[in-house]
């Protein structure tokens, strides 16, 4: 049995201590925002280190949720996260699957174009002009269509598709399955590890996105919650609408201030994705583990057999 030296134990101790301190350094600023959001503003203004609310209150969140803009922006954010993630994963997977086939005509040309756009872009102003001419200004589709495809996600998926056994597709072709059947019934289910990874990345990106709405959206009914948060922090018109909900007595007593409303809005905007992400991540990991134990060959073979049975009945 391998016996560790005292030097290894000392190194591991310092390494663990460093990682714990680094984790606390990352978590404490966010925890402090949460604590101050649940603390009365007059007590927060006294300063000091806050590890928990000294004067607990929900008044900051009451002010935030009194504005209908929060509810409409939440609906926009949730819908763009769900639809944007699904469409992006499916579209990118289809494109990556096509480029993974060496028999595809002009395959190298398409790959070259993709790599060019990876390193060079048209610039912000041409992109804004192009998107405006395409009718994406004040259009909900600006959240979905431009985000349907990503170069890096395509490269990751393409590499994974290339690693799949060719026998899976060959057996399905012999049984009469076409390309779409092979992709949706064999390749896509067999690629759950990369699909789950890209899906989680897209979901977090869609939830946190605000720059597209900042550039192309002026209607408040189409604003996502992140843009509302940005405007509240900068003190724009959306912030004034929220602060109007604060009564004069609350302002005079300093139980609620614009700064405390900003903190509450931050928690409202980023809290759900932080709470949901570990839950879905655990589900994905569990499903990927189950898929690994089940194996992909029996699944592909059963689908191919079903396809054969269907073709024989026609």
How many DSSP-defined strands?
0
Structural domains: how many: 1
The tally of helices reads 16
- Tell me the fraction of residues in β-strands, as a range: under 5%
**CATH architectural type:** Orthogonal Bundle
Largest sheet: none
CATH class value: Mainly Alpha
Domain ABC transmembrane type-1: 74-280
Organism: Cohnella rhizosphaerae
Subcellular location: Cell membrane
Protein name: Carbohydrate ABC transporter permease
Q: How would you explain this protein's 3D organization?
A:
There is one protein chain. This protein is mainly α and 314 residues long. It has one domain: MetI-like fold (Orthogonal Bundle), CATH 1.10.3720. 74% of the residues lie in helices and 0% in strands. It has 16 helices and no strands. The chain has helices spanning 6-37, 41-44, 59-65, 68-99, 107-119, 124-133, 151-163, 166-174, 179-190, 192-208, 211-216, 225-234, 237-243, 248-253, 258-294, 297-313. Helix 12 crosses helix 13. The longest helix has 37 residues, at 258-294. The radius of gyration is 26 Å and the shape is globular. The termini are far apart. The model is unreliable at 293-314 (pLDDT under 50).
